[in-house]
Here is the input.
Amino acid sequence: MALLKSVRKVGCVDITPEENLTLYLKTKTSKKTKVNNLFLPRLCEFKQMEKKTSCEYEEAFKGTREMALSAMQKLQLEIKAAKDNDGKDSNKRQLQLVLMVLRTICTVAAKPEGKHYSIYCETLIHVLGKYIQPSVSAKYWTFYLEHVRYLHYIVADKKMDDEAQRICDLVVSYPSYLQSEGDYKILLGMFLQQLLSQYHHKRVNAKLAQEHSTVILEMLKNFFIEMLRCNKDQNFQYPELIADFVEYLVPKRVSSVFNFLASLPANKTQMYDSFFTLLKDLRTSEPTKEVLHAQCQRHIEALCVFFQLDVPDRLQQQLALRHLRACREMTVFANDKSSNYVFSLLYYLVKLTYGLPNPGEFKDVYKDLSQKLNIFFEKYGEMLMKERWFTDVPVVITVLLTHLQQSPTTPYACFWQQMNNIECYIAHFELILGCIRLAPRIVETKLLKIDCCTSARKHTIVSLLITALAALASYAATADESTTEDEELFVSFRTQVLLVMKHGVSVLDSLQCITTDTTELKLIYSRFIQLIPELRTLPLKRLGITLAEFLVRVRHKLSVKDWTTLLRRLYKMMLQTEETNLTTELQAAHIASMMQEQPWPDLSLLRSRIGYFHSASPHVASGQSISQLTLESHSPLKVFLDAPQTHLLHWLEMQHFLRYLKSNEQLQINLMRCSPTIYYETLIARISEKMSTAVSSRLRELKKDLELKKEKTVGLTRLEHLCWAQINTALFHDDLQMNKEMLAVEIKTNEDYLEDLLQSKEFTTVTIANEVKLINQAATALQSFREFYEKADSEPITSDEVFIDWDALVDDLTSLALFMQLAGYTNLATEAWILHYRITNTICDEYGSLRSLQYFFEKNEYFLNSTTHGINLVEEIERKQNFLLNAMQQLPKIVKKYQNHLLMCLCHLACYYAKIGHMSYAQILLKYVSQIHDELPTQLGKYNVVLGTVDVVKFRILWKHLHMGQSKISSKLAQRSLVRHMENTLERFRGDFFKLSTSELLNYSILLMSLIEEVAECAANRLCDQFVNSFFAGILKLLYQSGSALRVIQVLAMWALINLQMEYIPKAQVKLKLIEYMLGLRSLEEVKEMREKPATAKKSTTASSALEFVQSGMEPLRRMISLYASPIKSIKLLLSPSARSEGKFDHFLHMQCNDTLQQYEIFQWCCFMLGCLTARLHYLADNHENLEDFYEASQQWLDERPQTDLHISFQNIQLMRLQHYANFLRSQKKYEKALNCLQVALDSFSKMRGNVDNVYHINFLLQLNATKKEMSVSKQTESRGGLRRALTFNISPDLETPVSTAWNKLTTTAMKIYASDDSTPQRAAEPAKKSAHETNAQISKARKLRRQMAGEFPFKTPAKADIVNVKSSTKSLTARKIKELRAAKGDLFSSSSNNTPESDVDILNQCQRIQSIDLVDSDDANSKQSETPIVTVNTDANQINKRSVRKTGKHNENIMDICHKIESINLVDEPTVISSDSGTSTLQATATKAHTPEIVGITDDADSFKTPDSTFGKLTAPPKTTNTRGTSKKANCTTQTKCKSKESIANNESTETNTSTASSETTTIKPNDPQVEMIEKIKITEDKKATTTKMKTRTKTEVRTVKVITVETEVKIITPASQAAKKEKEKSTSGSTTRGRPRTARKAPSSTNGNENIAPPVTVGRTLSRRARQ
Here is the structure.
């Protein structure tokens, strides 16, 4: 018959229906084959019967329910029939039939076809069981019980609890169900299986499960009683009773069985009592030695199970103690002393741990018990350990101690509460040590669950180590500072603890199966971690440190995180002690251990730990380093790091030092000492602003080592190049700082004290020779940085070698670039910024790249047309566009430093856009920067480098005329407030700057130098030095204190250039001497010898001085300064004798003997610049020797120079040289060379346009025209044989044409009274009707012109009037008169800017109007409409040359074109304004006699002005204006005409003030020509203003009278028809005219007299300005 496939072991709850009966029988006994061996022979006896009936009943029970019921009924009939047979073996045959059918039912029930379990149980209970008698056959009864148990197992597995309970009840109902000694195993297993099934049934029906459990426990109690009866009556021995009870009671695969047994009903105690009574009273025969040892083994194993049952039951049943008590009384152990003594000791030990003794006797009992156990182990342990059962004795003690260690949560807490004395713990550790001594002889044990290996002895020792740590933690919890222990006792205690720890750790280290995830290791670690906080006393803390040192042996088995936590606990434990060195080492070890975390340490946590170590740890001495402590520590807890981990730790600590602890010199030295590489050592050393001696000497040693390696080997590696670069950078900054400290003395840099600087010992060190040493060092560092960058692909550097500090690298590059830029070494600065840009792009440092990008935009002229640098600005803008837009959107969120970088970059980007013609972009960017700067909370209300950059960029755009497109060249010189804007910018830089941070100071210095370079050139070309001298003095002091020799040279050169332009020869000579010394061209002694007073010359006559001035060959630009304003003052300019003796200039161009100047090209350019300035100095002093040779040699020198950025930087010097050279050639009458030179200059300027001042272009054009004129005059003189001296005396070559002709050429007008060839009076075509404001402005101009002519040029004779007028006209000219000239030109002639003026007089007279242009005083500088000038005639009609008048139209076009280009040149701020224009060629007038008017009064009105709007809006905010209103008061006048006067009110428009008054005068008119008549009236008004000031005690009122002078001008244009009538009226009124005195003005003829051709009078009123009063 086929058996079932599988069956689960007894005790398993979930079993499958396919379980096989035979396999079940094989697996349900302790030997797993006993039942099978008993059952298989019996199967053979039923073989014949099976063949007849098994198949029949099997099919029936597998069928339908009806078939199963019918089979049950049929079976009942068959059993009755068998019973009715009164044969001898009827009961036996009946029993055999029952067994056969029961086996068939079990087989069907185990199969999947089995469905009718209730019928199967009914068949067993009501059919089969009813006819069974146990006494019939013990053998068949055992078979029957096995089948019943199997069916019970199947039913219980199907969770049919009622049927299972009925089966148990069936068995118990039999009177004698123990017919053999082995039947107890079947019944005990079935009863306990039913008890365990109630645990699962409890979830379904707890109440019913509780009832069934109570019934089963009652059954078990009776069952044990029955067993004891059978032992006494039938001598059943039950040798395996304890093992079977434990096996069935505690199945191995049932979870939570201990909690279930602990929750059994109360009658479980009776069940246990019955069992232990059975165990104690069980009578057995004298056992053999093997049987005795087996019994001991079984009871020791059961003891461990009872320990497990007692823990969840909280010792209520005390099963282990009751079991040991029973073992003591068992007859089997009575005659064996060793076993009986062991069980007795174990009994007392368990009784002690269960807390049963009197607490007062606990210490003595425990000490005695521990001593007895140790003595027994020492005497008999070695002998007994040969027995198998005794090897489990130390193990069972270990198990007991393991349960004891769970003190907080187990019922053993009372044990630890009584362990309140150190002697108890000494006894406890003695017991542990006794077990450890026996443990090496343990071969195997079933008491410990060991799955990893077979070494029971080692795992036993490990378990004892765990219990020892728990005991130590318990003792530490009770000990504190107040606890006083005997020293000997503590030494004994400490010794025992260390012995346990030593043995345990050594065994733990030897176990291969112990890994990081092993339970035992985790338990040891957790016990130790819990122990550390409990150690409160210093001896215990030291003990804890020692125990931790033992754990170092198993450090490799612990995880990095666990070891780090352990060190942290130890460090925190030692914080409260005075062991500062130990605490510091533990903290350093903890931080170092964090480096070993895998795969990568937590850097943020590491940084916080390092920061706490250096800043918040009170025990850490200043200067102590984690890296140093890690390397130099001798503690067993020292952490050993590999090279990458050491690098990372040192890197992180170094980063913390560089950021927060720069001033800690001792820490710096310690970090350098323990640096793993010289790179880290270099990084640490470079951070100090002022290096200590030790750091500096160490850096120099490193530098020397690298130099030797560089010389002896092929070269340096990439990392060594980086070290070399940063070492040189650090030493460079150190030397620079030392120079600054040496030069930090107070000096006078005023212009008058410059020569005294040569006496200063500190100043004599500021030379190129000294500075070049620093520059060489910086250049070497820059070259090494370049090598490091270029070798990135060929020599990669991994993080295992070093961690590159890219921030430090970028900072060093930035500092080098900024220094080069500030020091003036432009080529080196450009290289540094390009490398900086490439590296920042490589490391994706977007904000860092803005600094280099800012330089590219600022110096855009270097990159626009050059491919040598590899920077395309268009491409770079496209690359950075998205980042710039995002940064602009997030601007308020970024840090202030990056805000400044971004905004300054946008400013210079605006300059670049303006340079390439995108002016709208430039305007938008500058406006954005100004607005967003005011909105930033960190920048609000502060004038810093950002706003300074905005002002500098605006000034650059305005000065270089970048706001004009190339299509508007003719109007480039539109009127702009350039000088005033320049002055205001300098004022803001001087006083408005907010407090600068350290990072902004260098940017401010560079910005200041950039501004002064442009201001110097602009001021020099416009002859205005009154507000730049103080600025130069301040800059010079700043540069001197920084030790920048090259910049000092450049500033002195710019200052000297202004002096030369203003002809301050002594001042310029002093500066040039200083430059020569600083360049090394002269020694200090030679320069001091030159300190002589220049030779004085007697003052010559005015005529000869004027002649020398006119004939000195000065260029026309210089002649704009009138004679009386010249600093020469008619004294010949002379150099000092020593300077005159040095007339050669070769040393400025040929410097082969000077090695210092040969090192850098910029030094040679500086010498070239110095040579040009010196040549100019000699020229002005009439020392022309060797000048031509120098200029020719300098041109050759320039031709030999390669095209570099320095050509662009010195473009202005090149043009200045050409300007001076042409001027020199003209003075030497070498006109052909001069023309060639000027043509070259014009070509050069066309290439440099936008980079240099447009004044150079104007100067070249003027000199070109003057040279041509001089050539023609020279040729005419040679052809005529020379002019008489009387005719040429005091006459300039430019003024050879008669003065009256020159004057008439200047007079043009846009209004025609008569046509040129028609004598009939007719009105010219009138332009568009002008507004009242424009009309008043025109009349104001005419009034001013009339006043100047009348009041400033008193003529003694008519013959001299023209000459005086010409000379006087050079005083001043306003922008308003330039507009008049332009308007006149537009009406009369066609404009052409390419023609060159043929008359020098025209150019001279136009240029004479340039010098006093000031935009602030121009009311309509930006006016787009032409203005019709009012003509005033001031020449004698008898001296007018008609030919000169006709030539006016021919040359006026060229004159006006030149004037257009001069309009924005601001040369001298003079308040007076003159203009004299003439309209038609037929107009002639008679010169009138002007008298100086009397000063009527000076008003105290407020100065109101308005700056014309520029491209950027209003450049200067107008000050507050004061409106003044006064009452009318008549002025004394002689006119009979009553004129309507207007009150003058001060408003926001520009107003002018003058201190002179005008008197009325009479003009004599030629009858046939129109005449202009001007009448001025002066009106004084007074206004009283009361000011009230309220104070606490009184109120103060002040009354102030303000006088306002109002000048009214009436202009009349009289036709020839009305001149006769007017003349008759004048004669009749005042008689003949008296020359030299003003005549009384007549009343203007009324319209009734028929004067229709008289122009209507125009009245102008204005208030004079403060500038005019000055």
User: Anything to note?
Assistant: The radius of gyration is 60 Å.
